[in-house]
Amino acid sequence: MKGEKVVKIKKKILYIIAFLLFFICIGANQSKAGYLKLNNLDFQAQINADGSMDVKPQHVGTGISYISNVIIAALSCKKGSLFVVENPEIHLHPSAQSRLLDFFSFLASKGLQVIIETHSDHIFNGLRKNINSKRIQAEDTSVYFFKQNKELLSTPVKILIDENGVIKNQEKGLFDQFDEDLDELLGL
User: Cα–chain-centroid distance for residue 185?
Assistant: First the structure.
């Protein structure tokens, strides 16, 4: 009896993790319909769009194996805990990086303090999108940009973001490489 209960709980936990992986990495919002099947504890996603597509763990990139550890660690935290993650964007598609902030915003709204170290403009803009859509309040977030001072030491600069997700004090070097590259390509 007790063993059956443990198996049921494990299946529920695996289902939640599979759902999060499906949403973040595969993009549930990219298809009109989508669902998950958990067969013998084997994650499989089927997306119905112009046909069906089965996705199994052995057919996806290393981003899923990395982010699944991040998701499990985050879900293991208790309310009021501090969760720190470094470069959660590793091996994830840009859209998955942005959607990952939906998950982190959800965790923060449930009382988990989340600290993210990132070099990804998609993670940064994912936060701004979540502020704009009111999934998280701007005053409940803090963003720091580290820049070198004259002595070549890193100094933190608090980045101000308003309730619409707009940056109020853009710093040179703060996720502006795309614009700089585009300006060069366009000869501006």
Answer: 30
- Give the span between the Cα atoms of 120 and 117, in whole angstroms: 9
Q: Which residues make Cβ contacts (< 8 Å) with residue 88, sequence separation at least 6?
A: 67, 70, 97, 100, 116, 118, 123
Half-sphere exposure of 51 (CA within 13 A, CB side): 2
Average pLDDT, the chain: 77
Q: pTM, whole model, 2 decimals?
A: 0.71
Find the helix packing angle between 62-75 and 94-109, rounded to 10°. 0
Give the pLDDT confidence of 61-99 residue by residue, as tens digits: 666 777 878 888 888 888 999 999 999 888 888 888 888
- How many CA atoms lie within 13 Å of 105's alpha carbon, on the beta-carbon side? 24
DSSP 59-103: GS-HHHHHHHHHHHHHHTPPTT-EEEEE-TTTT--HHHHHHHHHH
Please, what's the largest Cα pairwise distance for the chain?
71
Count other C-beta atoms under 10 Å from residue 51's C-beta.
Answer: 6
Rg (CA), the chain: 19
